[in-house]
Design goal:
Blueprint lengths: L10 E5 L4 H12 L3 E6 L2 H13 L4 E5 L5 H15 L4 E4 L14 H29 L3 E6 L2 H4 L8 H20 L5 E8 L7 H5 L3 H9 L9 H12 L10 E4 L32
Parallel strand pairs: 1-2, 1-4, 2-3, 4-5, 5-6, 6-7
Helix pairs in contact: 1-2, 1-9, 3-4, 4-6
Amino acid sequence: MFQKDLLKDRAIFLTGGGSGLGRSMALRFAELGARMFVVGRREEPLKETCDEIRRTGGAAAYATCDVRDPSSVEAAASTADQQFGRIDTLVNNAAGNFMARTESLSPNAFNAVVGIVLNGSFHCTQAFGKRWISQKLGGNVLNIVTTYAAANCGSGFVVPSACAKAGVLAMTTSLAVEWAKHHIRLNAIAPGPFPTEGAWSRMIPSKEYEKHSRDKHPMKRFGRHEELTNLAAFLISDMAEYINGECVVIDGGQWLRGAGEFTISPCSPTTPGNRWKPPRKK
């Protein structure tokens, strides 16, 4: 469906590009002709992503970067510009998440997720937005949010993530209007369950819960990475030039069942294998 040169001459800055969906997007964009600059906090996964892209003839570079730190973001953005001349597309994918009962959250736990997801996305978006506006050449931002932000249903047990991703979605729609005159497009993707290394084991901690999650899904399956990467490639391509301020949900219809992706969770008393005991009467 996609021509091999769909993203030819594109230079893409992608956060969280060393693993999971970020890595899959980096490989797919490079396959379609894009030059990739990936960032993250750990060097080895970033290097592995770039090595794989180069083995297939693509162009890739990386820098370690803590998106919570504006100076770190600015340094990585400058390095990316030096590497490829100009970055024209930003994909805010870096995220953090965990499940917990909200009443037990510490301020640091809440801030850890919001710092990466919301603050980090803003730092990157502002860094490149300022460049694009001064250059008068336009740009493209794709934000990876969640169904429980996009579908306006929230989700229990992941409140820091829900708050942060909802903020990223609000930034997407707000800047889509504010920056449209500068020929800068902003869109978002809201994925449902997509198995990844690392994050999946934290959010789906047991085979029992994985089976439970699959069985209650309308399509009785989880998403495949190529399904999301193809959607992402379309949204940042010239084929989608008139799509601006949109959030596309890709979850097989799961959000339509309501209650939020993690409301029935290992922290929930209604989850199989997690027996809930009423408090003892004093």
